[in-house]
């Protein structure tokens, strides 16, 4: 924080009422940004699935407020915006808007493009506004990104280091054209970037209104108080944990590793309200798209701690002051060029979160959470009914979340890196806009991991491809060989089960990293999503809740008898 900002903050005592108003106003700024984005962007992955996030950061690039969208975005943006600002340290002016997506400049993976805009008041940068959006296509080997065959970052798409998209209020049309033309859907990318631009500009405008009402000193004091509050609740949570070193271990599904599994170990030392998260034991980076750049790894660690805390006051970067993260350069979770990273946000992030949660379970078992369904997504590309090229991202059927001490898991809103942050698309809009027909979409019986608190159910989706020419499916995911884990005596949930069923009856399983699968006209894509892991001994579940589950179709009568020890009459 600048010396001027610090001095002004230290001279003001902020009232609890003013703090509450300013805190909620900053949240409203981020929410208005995402609503602006929703109503002006072009791509279905954005206007239907809302795969984007908005934050307000202070002058030291710490997140002060965030819209409730994609956690793995928000935990990574502070590093990205810091590096973007550093690149233009001596060349920042009012009206500038910076743009970047490069994982080696603080980004996550290439589809996630971040726009950041400084808010000036009195000639000083007081705050930053940033919005990160997952673009439908950013070039690379595979339509829609997630190039499972990529061996180096350049094969994954267009790298955008910190760049000025807008200089002193003037849009750089040449740069916008360059970026857009590197996409298979240039009109969509151009429109989506302009929507992002509108969103960050409205954010800066709303900050101006707030500063006019309260002034720099009072806003600065509120920002400091918000961050201090985030630190306080996190340290308080850590002080309730058992001190010492706690370990966790999860695995990535990777065909070239022994047994097809790549271990990701973590140890967490907790002392006096402080945690040191050691990920230096992670394996070396690989020539595959599952490496996780540091910003993404940081985000995953913070997401795990916020799950464990469950306190909304910690949803800012003040909480990060209590947590130190150690990595090893050149490893899977802190790679160096030219490592590809396309699956980091939805695959590797889940594995890191799981490992951290398992270590934290040993520190405070009552706070434990069963495993969530990991993300298993795919992109389908081909020609629509009018003969135009299309790229469709699978956002249906996300799987169940884990149970905890107080509640069953949520049904079919996972995965672990982003629970509920990206809504499922409209079935009707999907069928109208794409050569796809949804033949079945329902919760899948017996998919929730058994426990005293049951895991949330996964779903069953049957999608028929109704195009005139073959399409191509590229998969990227996890959670087939490694199911959502049970905790505190609970049982694992089942893994995902995806397959292609051709019109002639041939069944072709879809692997987590399969690329270039031909989808013929009439082929059905059958996706049974994983359910969440259970919490506690299944035999300890209230028989009345088991009977309710049977009545609702969540649990079969046979499973009620065999697993829960409850006979439910027909």
UniProtKB/TrEMBL annotation:
- What are the residue boundaries of the Hydantoinase B/oxoprolinase domain, all occurrences included? 16-538
Give Gene Ontology CC terms: cytosol
Q: Which GO terms describe its molecular function?
A: 5-oxoprolinase (ATP-hydrolyzing) activity
Pfam families per record: Hydantoinase_B (PF02538)
Listed InterPro entries: Hydantoinase_B (IPR003692), Oxoprolinase-like (IPR045079)
The alphabetized list of GO BP terms reads: glutathione metabolic process
Instruction: Indicate what this protein is called per its UniProt record.
Output: 5-oxoprolinase
What organism does this protein naturally occur in? Azorhizobium oxalatiphilum
